[in-house]
Amino acid sequence: MLMKIGIGFLALLTALMGTAAWAVVQSGVAYVSVDDPSEGVSFHVPVPLVLADAALAFAPEEDLRQARRELQRHAPFLKGALQELAAVEDAVFVHISSPYEEVRVFKKNGYFVVDVQSDRESVHVSVPVEGVQRLMGSVAAW
Fold this sequence. Notes:
Elements: H1 2-27, E1 29-36, E2 41-48, H2 50-58, H3 61-73, H4 75-87, E3 91-97, E4 101-108, E5 111-118, E6 122-128, H5 129-140
Antiparallel strand pairs: 1-2, 1-6, 3-4, 4-5, 5-6
Helix pairs in contact: 4-5
């Protein structure tokens, strides 16, 4: 009897993990990486965008209404910009270089990426373009 309960529990756990993994894959994962040796800071965090969806469920309704109003005011531009960003091939949009730092903003493999390298620190943020489109669409209800 305990064997059947254990197998049933493992099957349920496997199904839940599979569902969670599928949700993460479907929503995408943003990556944030910061290294600052002078401050002793180094962190690398993958952030499943499904967490952003979950956070929206707990956001105060008035804040969501205000965000929707703001997004809808700019909806044609934002929607068009995100569609074009998704459609464009990999490209560098901004590249600024000085003796002390380098900043690059680009699209690569479906991700919108911002990289900052300086003498003191390194910052890398990458966000899946399709995940941003989906998230913006759910907030703005377009």
